[in-house]
Fold this protein.
Amino acid sequence: LADWNGDLLAAGETTSVFPGGTGADIARWNPANSAWEVLATAFNTTSPAVYALRPVGSRLLVGGSFSSIDT
């Protein structure tokens, strides 16, 4: 979990929090509707591909096993 620009983010395999089993590698908590939203999905990976999130100023560093990320 990470707090980035006031958003709560979660990294890793998140299929259990999304209806239909579709997941995200980075999810954002939306307090307005009390639900997780897909923030980004990594490509060319094995699940879970994102292992770490680190906010640095206005940037979010993402660590894991992936070659690209779709934002």
User: Anything to note?
Assistant: Strands lie at 2-4, 7-11, 26-30, 35-43, 50-56, 59-64, 68-70. The chain has a mean pLDDT of 75. Residues 9 and 28 are 5 Å apart (CA to CA). DSSP finds no helices and seven strands in the chain.
